[in-house]
């Protein structure tokens, strides 16, 4: 069982209401420290783009990767700026919509290009612009097929056999090639890691172009199951594999190159918990349901990927219940049958042995700091939930709950 700090979480639920996300700054700092071997740690902010967390990252020397205009503006709001190499900000994408193109040209943000058209559209407007090439090496790997970002069925990156054409475009538009980037998916395994490193060395040689940096992408796994702590990536080992590839590249080019890593989940997943209150219980045939006030609009991963999140039960006065007594299906309030948190791979409802939960108890969803709040939505017209940061003794509301009036405001035309 993963530990839940019952008294603290009950106090936060009381003060800010449920559902509510809670983050622990100490865990974020610890994970960043574990990545210190790399020259550059670039946070994939899609995992969690709260401006206050981005500020915390910036203070720790972490750079940032944005994937949209909104994420670029969030990075700026957190104090990130465009500067020399390694540039604190980069935009990674497979297309440039018009508004994003205008903004990256104005800001001079380096662009990690995932399609030839991005190079053409950028080159026409902004000759000399700094670019990275995101390469699809022809294979991928993910914790779910939806998070595999390489191979023939992935829309991401420039297909490895088309590197030559991309280099031609870079020359034609006099773009400034910073480096090559590969991210094959989320949930690293070492077999694939070695393949990616080999592919990176091969691509640098094939390109026939000088570069100043390589990016290992993100994808470092975290132990979502309590008994899987061994699956947390050994960052020193991970680095050593990439470092060998880097040295081969340096030998080929005859000068040093920066080695970047671009994790999202590894830095924030374990730092975050989603708190929800038990509001109803019912027995449906052989299934015992516990219904909480958070739904898949708040935490999408179980419904979307069949992902596992540990669940703790805490009484309203902060006592953690530790004895799993009965198989329980935990579900949310949405008017949709798939609004279930206890699922197996493929999204099949899977009762889980949990302590007996009373109405008013808190359910704590662990490891919800990555792709939790950032993937939440207003489905069923439910407002976005608050986010709270715990830093030692300090408890700060870093996003307030959205109001219903704010939901309606866009339609008051
Ligand atoms: N870099 C690039 C180019 C990416 O596409 C991603 C993730 C990352 C870095 C960070 O990957 P991470 O280290 O967080 O695994 N919503 C899914 C994950 C989608 C990841 C998409 N790209 C989930 O909840 O598991």
From TrEMBL:
The residues listed in the UniProt record as binding substrate, with positions renumbered to this chain, are 265, 301, 305, 336, 371
User: Which sequence positions carry the modification called N6-(pyridoxal phosphate)lysine?
Assistant: 46
Highest taxon listed in the record's lineage: Bacteria
Q: Which residues bind pyridoxal 5'-phosphate?
A: 219, 262-265, 371
E.C. number = 4.1.1.20
Which Pfam families does the UniProt entry name for this protein?
Orn_Arg_deC_N, Orn_DAP_Arg_deC
What SUPFAM superfamilies does its record include?
Alanine racemase C-terminal domain-like, PLP-binding barrel
Please indicate if the UniProt record lists Lyase as a keyword. yes
This protein is called Diaminopimelate decarboxylase
What organism is the protein native to? Silvimonas iriomotensis
């Amino acid at each position: 069982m993963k530990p839940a700090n019952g008294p603290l979480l009950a106090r936060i639920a009381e003060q800010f209401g449920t559902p509510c996300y809670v983050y622990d700054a100490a865990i974020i700092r610890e994970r960043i420290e574990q990545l210190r071997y790399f020259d550059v740690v670039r946070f994939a902010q899609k995992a969690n783009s709260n401006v206050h967390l981005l500020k915390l990252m910036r203070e720790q020397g972490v750079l940032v990767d944005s994937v949209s205009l909104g994420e670029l503006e969030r990075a700026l709001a957190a104090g990130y700026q465009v500067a020399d190499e390694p540039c604190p900000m980069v935009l990674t994408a497979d297309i440039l919509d018009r508004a994003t193109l205008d903004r990256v040209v104005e800001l001079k943000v380096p662009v990690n290009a995932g399609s030839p058209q991005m190079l053409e559209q950028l080159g026409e407007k902004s000759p000399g612009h700094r670019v990275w090439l995101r390469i699809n090496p022809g294979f991928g790997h993910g914790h779910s097929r939806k998070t595999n970002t390489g191979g023939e069925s992935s829309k991401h990156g420039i297909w490895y056999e088309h590197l030559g054409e991309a280099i031609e475009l870079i020359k034609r538009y006099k773009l400034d090639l910073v480096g090559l980037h590969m991210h094959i998916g989320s949930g690293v395994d070492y077999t694939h890691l070695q393949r990616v490193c080999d592919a990176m060395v091969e691509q640098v040689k094939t390109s026939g172009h000088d570069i100043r940096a390589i990016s290992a992408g993100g994808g470092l796994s975290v132990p979502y199951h309590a008994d899987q702590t061994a699956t947390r990536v050994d960052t020193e080992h991970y680095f050593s594999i990439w470092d060998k590839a880097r040295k081969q590249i340096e030998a080929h080019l005859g000068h040093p190159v920066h080695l970047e890593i671009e994790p999202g989940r590894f830095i924030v997943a374990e730092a975050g918990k989603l708190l929800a209150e038990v509001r109803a219980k019912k027995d449906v045939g052989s299934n015992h349901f516990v219904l909480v006030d958070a739904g898949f609009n708040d935490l999408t991963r179980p419904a979307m990927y069949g992902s596992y999140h540990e669940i703790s039960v805490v009484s309203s006065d902060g006592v953690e219940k530790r004895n799993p007594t009965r198989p329980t299906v935990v579900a949310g309030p949405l008017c949709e049958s798939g609004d279930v948190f206890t699922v197996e791979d493929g999204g099949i409802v899977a009762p889980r042995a949990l302590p007996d939960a009373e109405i008013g108890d808190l359910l704590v969803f662990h490891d919800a700091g990555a792709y939790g709040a950032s993937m939440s939505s207003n489905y069923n017209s439910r407002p976005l939930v608050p986010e709270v940061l715990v830093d030692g003794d300090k408890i700060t509301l870093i996003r307030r709950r959205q109001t219903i009036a704010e939901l309606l405001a866009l339609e008051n035309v």
